[in-house]
Amino acid sequence: MAAALMDHHAAGAVEVHSAGTTPGSTINALSAEVVAEVGADMSSGTPKPIDPELLRSVDRVVVLGDEAKVEPVAGMAGTIETWHTDEPSTRGIEGVERMRLVRDDIDTRVQRLLTELTDGTHA
C-alpha cells in the first residue's frame, strides 16, 4: 500500500521499492481495491523479499506495523523508520471499512514523508 501510494503522490520525484520480511505469494486484493479508489495502483506489484544490496543504497526504509523487524545491514546509507499504523480491527472494524482506514493512515504518513524527502518541493 505504502509503495503504491508513494508512487502515486511522488509522480517520479522519488524512487520507490517495496519488499517484505515474509512476503506472501500475491498482492492483497482488498488492499489493491482501496488503493485504486484514491488513484494509486498496486496491480503490477508482486510480493518480494528484502534485498540486502538495495537496503544498503536507499535513503529510507519504512517498516509498516509492529510485527516486522528490519535490522540494519553493514554499509547501510539510510535509516529505518517504523510506522505504528492504526489497526481498526482492534475496535471491531473489519472488511473494506477497515482497509480504507488503514489506507488513509498510511497515506497521511506517505505524504508527510514525501514532503520530507523532497524538502517540501513536491506538494
Automatic annotation (TrEMBL):
Keywords carried by this UniProt record: Arsenical resistance
Matches recorded under InterPro entries: Ptyr_pPase, Ptyr_pPase_sf
Domain of life: Bacteria
Taxonomic lineage from the root: Bacteria, Bacillati, Actinomycetota, Actinomycetes, Micrococcales
Protein name, UniProt field: Low molecular weight phosphatase family protein
SUPFAM superfamilies: Phosphotyrosine protein phosphatases I (SSF52788)
Organism encoding this protein: Kocuria oceani
Domain Phosphotyrosine protein phosphatase I: 1-116
